[in-house]
User: What shape does this take?
Amino acid sequence: MTVSQTDFRAAVLDPVRPVPEGLVDPEGRAAGKRFDVYRNNVVVSLSNALGEAFPVIRKLLGENNFRILAGHFVRAHPPVSPLIALYGEALPGFLEQFEPVRSLGYLPDVARLELALRRAYHAADTLSLPPAELQALPPDALAEARFRLAPALQLVESDWPIVSIWRFNMEDGPKPRPVPETALITRPQFDPEIAALTPAAGTFVSAIAAGGSLGEALSCASEIDAGFDLTPTLGALISGGALIAIEED
Amino acid sequence: MLDSTAHETLPLAPGVGYKPQHFAAIMADPGPVRWLEIHAENYMGDGGRPLAQLRHLAERFPISVHGVGLSIGGEAPLDRDHLARLAHLVGWLNPASFSEHLAWSTHDTAFLNDLLPLPYTEATLARVASHIDQVQEALGRRMLLENPSTYLAFAESEMSETDFLREIARRTGCGLLLDVNNVFVSATNQKTDPRDYIAEFPLEHVGEVHLGGHDEQEDEHGAPLLIDSHGAEVVDPVWTLYAETIAAMGPRPSLIEWDTDVPEWPVLAAEAERAAAILTPARQAVLS
Assistant: This one.
């Protein structure tokens, strides 16, 4: 009687499955509760990892509901890599489909924001573009400038006020108002910082991230908001260390 | 590569499993702690604070890299991407030691985040030995393999865990990491005597010792069932077993592991002090 890892894995992730035959206690009896130790370790350790990674989702759902949801999620989507620090890529999609929370339309984007924060936290260290290099450009060259961006830069677009929801739960911020917000995440040194962008400013950053020039990004943003002023958004990118070089043609 | 040439081996002294919340306390006053162990998988990001802290720690302390995700006992081939990440970390950090577990955690792409048990058979021996050969080749160094905590047994097992580990060390040249708490947990759960296990263990291959806390439960028949939780103080019977083991084999680098409900630094330092009280006389006995 051999127990394959395929059988072991299937039973560990499914509490209804019988314990594979051939796993025994010291008296040779079938391992019931002893097998449950592994079942418990797997689900609890992964649920804990998920809870640490998504503190706002946990708070929004409450501890008990989050535990139940996490139990379903880890069984349906166990990690595909031993890098647990980045576990949960599939959570936003899961939240869109999971019936009990489908009415909470903002949850998936809040989860995307929490994922982006962790990506920023672990991203490579980079040196920011010296402001003098930008100031030295003549105006027409400035409009044509394209930038290499820090890998810590993350942008999460949403129809929901995701940044306000995050601040309300993590920093006792004011009650969120129902406006769409794009989250801009930068990492000046080690701690990621979040800023809420208007849809036009979000489009501006997104165009730069896609390789567009400053002029192209400005015209994309102006299509959404004719009065768009790039100064504060460009300032946030610079102070957040998000611009690391001007691309040479 | 970092300049860690001053830290080529772990000292015959206490170390602790490093937790980021203890960074400032350790840098200010490490007390009896002479080296640190990190979980490899927590330092595989591209940058940021974890790697920056590790760089600071490595300038001051010998570091042991302890893998928890390689799945050396897995039926499938080792994850080459993960092995490459590990080789990258070990190549950059040049740690004093690298260790992993006699266990599996990945199967059919799913990483289960637990150290799952293996049957002790000829087939498992061949597989684990070949995976260790592959790891030692990829890292360009000898590794240590840790004995597991087990909660059940495989009816198909053909040999004892100690015979299994002795044969693995013989075939691969790897060293062993003796977790004394795991010995106590497994022996209680398997209804055997932990002293017999130590007596049968190939102590000559031991390069490091682990100490940690466990939880006490019962199985459905009322038999004791100990869970390796790393969430409490080391219990007195484990300290006794540790002292007897050190007396039998001599001093070894000894680690306090505390991974869940992590306490304030002084609690951890006090555990390390307790290990030092056993290690220091043993080290002096060797020198005299």
Q: What stands out?
A: Chain B has one domain: 11-287. Chain B has a mean pLDDT of 96.
